[in-house]
Write a structure and sequence with these properties.
The chain is built from 10 helices and 4 strands; from the N terminus they run E-H-H-E-H-H-H-E-H-H-H-E-H-H. The protein is of the alpha+beta class. The protein has a domain of about 120 residues: Nucleoside diphosphate kinase-like domain (Alpha-Beta Plaits), CATH 3.30.70. Strands 2-3-1-4 form a 4-stranded antiparallel beta sheet. Helix 3 packs across helix 5 and helix 4 crosses helix 5. The structure holds cytidine-5'-diphosphate and magnesium ion.
Length: about 200
């Protein structure tokens, strides 16, 4: 049988700026409020190799991230720093290694129906300048691709969240061992997922 929707898991990392901005509680609150279940959590200071591996687990990441960045410029009528997506993403990766290793991060696994998409919706688009209002990146930070490029640094956007179910599965394995993932029942899952809502009325 296919795994039930409610078993879908996603990886979230509160990046060093999220920790330094004292937003750990605020960020966790959003995922709790929507009904997701925390399956694993830890604080660590990642190494550069670990960060490079994390971003290149998906072989398409270099191309897609370069292309997305170029589109971000073009959509605003601006000239991208290069027309070559791979050149752009190599710089992004070098900057990310500095950014994500600059201090402690909080790594978490959250479980629940459509968790990957739900979390991406709550986190908002990559570039805070255009992330929707109401999203974490839209509400709590104000960076842009342009600012990052001019200063030769990463776009600071508080969080990493897996982009697809497949990405989530490999990223969770990269950050957590099997015995760090806790399987348990959360009482609220009954009201979220049970077919029959009996047992509420006395
Ligand atoms: O994090 P997300 O999946 O939204 O974006 P990504 O395209 O996978 O890029 C990973 C991270 O690289 C972003 O969250 C930014 O911190 C950084 N980045 C950047 O500094 N400059 C860019 N032009 C694009 C991404
Ligand atoms: Mg990504």
């Amino acid at each position: 049988m296919e795994k039930h929707f409610k078993k879908e898991r996603t990886l979230i990392v509160i990046k060093p700026d999220g920790v330094q901005r004292s937003l750990i509680g605020e960020i966790i609150k959003r995922f709790e409020q929507v009904g997701l279940k925390l399956s694993a959590i830890k604080m660590l200071v990642p190494e550069e190799d670990f960060v490079e591996k994390h971003y290149t687990l998906d072989p398409k990441w270099r191309l897609l991230t370069g292309e997305k960045t170029i589109k971000g410029y073009v959509d605003k009528g601006l000239e991208p720093p290069s027309q070559d997506p791979l050149e752009i993403s190599q710089k992004i990766l070098n900057n990310l290694k500095k950014y994500v290793t600059s201090g402690p991060v909080i790594a978490m696994v959250w479980e629940g129906a459509h968790s990957v998409k739900i979390v991406r919706k709550l986190v908002g688009g990559t570039e805070p300048l255009t992330s929707d209002v109401g999203t974490i990146r839209g509400d709590y930070v104000l960076d842009s691709y342009q600012m990052g490029d001019v200063d030769g640094r990463s776009v600071r956007n508080l969080i990493h969240a897996s982009g697809t179910i497949e990405e989530a599965e490999i990223e969770i394995k990269h950050w957590f061992s099997e015995n760090e993932l806790v399987d348990y029942r959360l009482i609220q899952e009954q009201i979220l997922y049970d077919v029959n809502l009996d047992g509420i009325l006395e």
